[in-house]
Design brief:
Keywords: Oxidoreductase
GO molecular function, one term: oxidoreductase activity
Protein name: NAD(P)-binding protein
Number of helices: 12
Number of strands: 8
Pfam family, one: adh_short
Strand content: 5-15%
Distance between the termini: 49 Å
Organism: Lentinula guzmanii
Order of helices and strands: EHEHEHEHEHHEHHHHHEEH
Structural class: alpha/beta
Radius of gyration: 19 Å
Shape: globular
Largest sheet: 8 strands, mixed
Length: 328
């Protein structure tokens, strides 16, 4: 039996590495624990989130809990990057500001997501949850690609894009992705429409990851280094990041945890941390590039929709058209 993943033992050297984790501002959230592990290993990590006050409080907590010392060259660092995924135009500006600020970017973890929300469209006519979970991360990633490609050209580089999806993607079904309405699936006839719309975006994330891997492979002649960026999508598993917000959480928590795949959020972050910085991926990039990982950190096949090259090509063409129409 393979030894259990241990972030204190099984991560690449992160000293001098720069990482962005989106949506990591809530202390009991998956993104926060991901930042905790990566900063503890010596990385300079940006929490990219909308809520500045909560993010800054979380950063102070991380500094205290991890004993981070800015004057110590071996110490990890945590910084705030204000990012609202509600409008791709603002997202591009934030990414451009980051390019002007930093000289490298080793890892991008697209973790932030809208979960259960009423069906609404933005002024661009696109479902809000699709904008937040797919279109804006697409724009953010594309804008940061030149810096990641530059970083990837360095000797012994290990540059990665990690897109957090979910096992819930299996309940969504996509037949085609030719126009905006194919993205704007409302699932009105489903008994759990909000949940299914969330699952729909998680399926789109895996399809996008597949398309992104293919896209990067085609750019090697025009953007040197980009073919060395490892793209992965993953399912972090069932993690209890919510029972603390219920009435009488002490009463419900034992029952909720019976359904969870990890005993706590810090352990629940292991799959994301592994994808972001696991040694095993560095030593065998070909095994993981463009693939989907489950909560056990194994490469597995996602749904048939998620494995469709045709849907991947359609999605890439469609999202490029949408962002071009936005002037991005």
């Amino acid at each position: 039996m393979a030894p259990r993943f241990n972030p204190k033992r099984d991560l690449v050297d992160l000293h001098g590495r720069v990482i962005i984790v989106t949506g990591a501002n809530r202390p009991l959230g998956l993104g926060y624990s991901t930042v905790k592990h990566l900063a503890s290993a010596g990385a300079k990590v940006y929490i990219a989130a909308r809520n500045e006050q909560q993010s800054l409080q979380s950063i102070e907590k991380l500094k205290a809990d991890l004993h981070l010392d800015p004057s110590d060259g071996n110490s990890g660092q945590v910084h705030f990057l204000k990012l609202d995924l509600g409008d791709p135009r603002d997202v591009k500006k934030v990414a451009e500001e980051f390019l002007a600020k930093e000289s490298r970017l080793d890892v991008l973890v697209n973790n932030a997501a809208m979960v259960f929300a009423p069906f609404e469209k933005t002024s661009d006519g696109i479902s809000k949850i699709v904008v937040t979970n797919l279109i804006s991360p697409f724009v953010f990633t594309q804008t940061l690609l030149p810096l990641m490609a530059k970083t990837a050209q360095e000797e012994s580089s290990d540059t990665r894009i990690v897109n957090v999806s979910s096992i819930t993607h299996y309940i969504a079904n996509i037949k085609k992705l030719e126009n905006v309405e194919d993205l704007n699936q409302e699932y009105r006839r489903r008994p759990l429409a909000k949940f299914t719309r969330y699952a729909h975006t998680k399926l789109l994330i895996i399809i996008w990851s597949r398309a992104l891997h293919k896209y990067l492979s085609s750019l090697s002649s025009t953007m040197p280094g980009v073919e060395r960026i490892t793209v992965m999508a993953l399912d972090p598993g069932n993690i209890d990041t919510f029972s603390n917000r219920w009435p009488l959480p002490w009463l419900w928590r034992p029952f909720v945890r019976l359904l969870m795949t990890a005993p706590n959020v810090d352990v629940g972050a292991y799959p994301t941390v592994f994808a972001a910085a696991g040694k095993a991926i560095y030593t065998d990039r070909g095994k993981y590039a463009g693939r989907y990982l489950n909560e056990k950190m194994n490469v597995v096949n996602p749904s048939s929709n998620a494995r469709s090259d045709n849907l991947a090509d359609e999605l890439w063409t469609l999202v490029e058209k949408i962002t071009n129409d936005m002037g991005l």
